[in-house]
Each structure stands twice: as structure tokens, then as C-alpha cells.
Amino acid sequence: MFFFIIRRLLVSVPILLAASFVMFGMVTISGDPLAEFRQSTDPNAPQTMATMRQILELDKPFTERYVDWLTGLFSGDFGLNRDGQEVSALLSNAIGTTLRLIILATIASILLGLFIGIISAVRQYSLLDYSSTFTAFLFFSLPVFWVAVLLKEFGAIRFNDYLEQPGLSVTGIAIITALTAGIAGALAGGAARRRATAAAGVGGVALILLIAIDATDWLTNPGISLPVIAVLSLGASVVATIIYAPLSHRPVLVSAAVAAIAGIVGTIVFDSWVDEGGFGRLFVLLVLSLALGAAVGAALGGEIDRRAAIQAGMTTTFFVGTIVVIDKFISAWSPGRTIGTVNPKPPNLDEPFWETMVVYAGHQILPSIALALIGFATYMRFTRASMLETLNSDYVRTAKAKGLPATQVILRHAFRTALIPVMTVITISFATAIEGAVITERVFAWNGGMGTLFIEGLNEVDPYPVMGFLVVVSVSIVLLNAVADIMYAYLDPRIRQ
Prior knowledge:
Blueprint: H1 2-28, H2 35-38, H3 45-56, H4 62-73, H5 87-122, H6 127-141, H7 144-164, H8 170-188, H9 192-215, H10 226-244, H11 250-269, H12 271-275, H13 279-300, H14 306-331, H15 353-391, H16 394-401, H17 406-443, H18 450-459, H19 463-491
Helix pairs in contact: 1-19, 5-6, 5-15, 5-17, 5-18, 5-19, 6-15, 7-15, 7-17, 8-9, 10-11, 10-14, 11-13, 11-14, 13-14, 15-17, 16-17, 17-18, 17-19, 18-19
């Protein structure tokens, strides 16, 4: 596996070199950086042109300019822009802003697309399948800038009016309950009686929760109490067990349940420590959660079920840690116009950690949703098609005939194989996400991102900022394609040969 990874990464080097040469040539002939000065009547125009020629190295031949630029890349020098600023410094700030937008949107679209795609394939030709397919095609056909404008109107301006005085009306409770019951019935599948039972049960629970939320004014003072965290954690232990092993495997179920209890105890012990916040503390919380789940699973899983117990324990403690983070986050929110429509953050922001995260999330949510909706459609359709092909395979039918639980057949047998072609789509779509981010940044006025750097470079015929943008995009695509090949080898060992 190690030599396969090294070989795959080495193959990417000549591809990047060839791409950089072609891009540099296209950017060079795309415009004249001195055009505005050639017709200028300013007496200082000749001096300005001379300075610009020196900054952009326009007096050198094309090959020499390319070699100088390429050599500088290895030392982190991307050249200078028209104003004499280092492109590497501009690019480092822009990458952080854009990656903050792209990564969250990409993760959300991948998770949602995979989940809906699997459910649609398993419930083929059901109402859920038809509705999710229609929704996917709808979002896939919409221009990202139009989606962004709609989100600004309905997801910010009007929703902010609601957030100033949040509450639940009788009509709202009825609509949410009906939607929840309908989704539960569609996910349940099977006979009409089974779907009706699932819809009635889930709808009843949703109705009770909504009434309790409205009666306690939870929306104006949100938070997750310790008893609720305990119930959710124990429920997560059962779900984690179902994913990795049948419920009849007691060591796995016990390991997950003990991991949930240990996570609840850790929530109490580290409450004040996590309350102070900080990315370093959150990383430590993640490591401790996973280590705790793995230790519990290794101790209680036994020899036969140890691997499944470790996986179930880690999944459970990760869920508990996620619930704790969500609790701290929503507790820091207070009613007001939270959703931002411009800029990645307000100026002169000086708030405690969790309050700062709320502000960042308010400015992040709309552009991330705009990108995620477009990406979700692609991932969902490819996942569904790949899963349908895999579910009809002989080895999947054999697994069903052996009496394996449906969850294990779908996730551990069918989905692993179906994920191979989907990985290609995920890596290729990353480039689409960057392209969409350029437009989204303009709609939401995210100044200082990669989109701003690229568009200003094009408008001002400034070659090196444009090349910096293209280098980041091309390197990301090539490296992610290499990662996709490595994932192929992990998912299917035959590819390593």
C-alpha cells in the first residue's frame, strides 16, 4: 500500500508541471497589463509603465518568466501583483476565507447526498425515492447565484425577522409534525401498516416535543439538559451497535452502552473546561472521546467482537462529544438578527469563543447552504445509481441469504463497493465547489477570498494573482484525484496490484 501511494503521488508531478505551463501561457496571452497606460495622457505614464514592466517582468521572454515563476513556487514565492504586493501573502489570507466556506459546504453535501442516496436506492420506486430524485434534479438545474439570491431574501431577511422573536404557532406545530411523520413513514418502508405505525409514533413524539418547546420558551433560551444528553447518548449506543453488529451480540451492545455512560460522566467532569472553548480544547475533546470509546470496546468486546465493539464505542463517544459541542453552541445564542448576508464576519469582533462561533456561523450558513445544495444533488444521484447496481450483485444477495442484518448488508457490503465510483465524483466536484465559491463570494460580498482575488486579477489583467488561484485549484484537483485512487485501493485491494 505504501509503494502504491508513493507511485500515485509521483505520477501527479508531471501532470502538475504540464498544467502549470499551459495555464501560464494562457494567462500571459489573455491580456496586456499595460493597456491602460499606453493611451494615457498622464505625464507619469511612461515611468509607471517602466515600473510595472519591472514588477511583472514583462521584458523577459516567456520561457524565462515561466522558469522564474516556477522556481519561486518551491520557496513559496508566487510573484508580485500590479501594486507590488506579494501574491503569496494575499493568497494565504484568501485560501483561509474560501476554505472555510468550501470545506463546510462540501462535508454537508457529501454526508447528505450519501445518506439520501442510500435511502433512495434501498426504497427504490417509493414516494421517498421519487421526491428525493425530483429535489436532486431541481437543485442540480438551478444556477448557484440564483439560489444564493433566494437564500438572502428568504433565509436571511425574512428569517431574521423571525429570529428576533422566535416562537411556534399552532399552524407551525401542525406542519412540522406532519412533515416529520411523513418522512418517518417513508423511511420505514414495508407494508402500509408498518409505515403508518412509524409515522404515528414519530409524529406523536415530535408533537410532544414541539409543545414542550413552545411551553418552556426553549427557542428564546436554548440548551440541552443533562437528562436529554443521557437519553440521546444511550440511543446513539443502540444505533452504533446496529451499524457494526446485530443487537444479539451482547459484548458490542454493552461496550457501546458503557461508552455512552462514560461519555456522560466525562460531560459532567469537563463541563467547565469545555465551556471556556477554544479549537485546541475541542481537538483534545475529540481525541479523548475516541480514545475512551476505543478503550471501552477493547476491554469489553471480547475476542470475537472486539473490532465491532471498538468501532461502536468510538462512534458512541464521538456522538456524545458532538452533542456537548452543540449544547455549548446553541446556549451561546440569543434572539436577534443572527443570519448575516455580507462579509465572512463583522468588523472588530471581540466576543468569547462560543459567542464568536455563533457570529461566524451566522455569516457562514447561507453561502454554505447555497454551495451544499448544488453539490448534494450530484452526490445523491451518483450514490443512488451506484447502490442500485451493487444491491443487485450476487455477493449482496448471498449476504442476505445468510441472514445478516439488513443494516450490515447495506453499509458493510453494498455501500463499501458502491463508494468506489462515488469517490471520483467527490474529487472532481471539489473543483466545481471552488468555481461556485467564486460566484457565491460575490453574491454574499465575501471580500478577501479566492473569488475576489481571481476576479480582481482578471479585471485588472494582473497575471500572478490569477496564476496563484489556478495553481491552488489545479493542485487541489490533482491531489484529490490521487487521494481518490488511494481510497480505491483501500476499498478494493485488487486495485493495489
